[in-house]
Prior knowledge:
Helix content is 63%, strand content 3%. The chain is mainly alpha-helical. The protein has one domain (3-114). It has a two-stranded antiparallel ribbon with strand order 1-2. Strand 1 (106-107) and strand 2 (113-114) form a beta hairpin. The longest helix has 25 residues, at 35-59. The two termini are 27 Å apart.
Amino acid sequence: MSIADFSAAYLEAAIWSSVPDGPEGDAWHAAPLSPQLTEQMAADCSAFYLAHGEMIEESGTAQQAGHDFWLTRCGHGAGFWDGDWPEPAATVLTDAAHAFGNVDLYLGDDGALYA
């Protein structure tokens, strides 16, 4: 397990849950991350994983945690709290993810993704 696995799963969940349906979604799939979004995602993933990596490794996988970090912080109706994580990890990780706040992605005029 690693922070790289965590971050990759976080990015995958972010794109998967944010891309609009239909032709507009094609542009999102092809869009690069803006430098600002890359930096923000790396900082958020690092901070979360460094603070909770031991609990993540004891209770689940880095990939599932990265995915659940995005879903939980953005209120997508699934995440750490939905039964896949044992207590007290589920509650601790849910509370920590909520503290990071919501993120909304959007496609910029330059064709890159931003938050």
